[in-house]
Amino acid sequence: ETAVFQTPNYHVTQVGNEVSFNCKQTLGHDTMYWYKQDSKKLLKIMFSYNNKQLIVNETVPRRFSPQSSDKAHLNLRIKSVEPEDSAVYLCASSPGGRDTQYFGPGTRLLVL
Amino acid sequence: QQKVQQSPESLIVPEGGMASLNCTFSDRNSQYFWWYRQHSGEGPKALMSIFSNGDKKEGRFTAHLNKASLYVSLHIKDSQPSDSALYFCAAVSGGNYKPTFGKGTSLVVHP
Question: What percent of chain A has pLDDT over 70?
Answer without folding.
Answer: 98
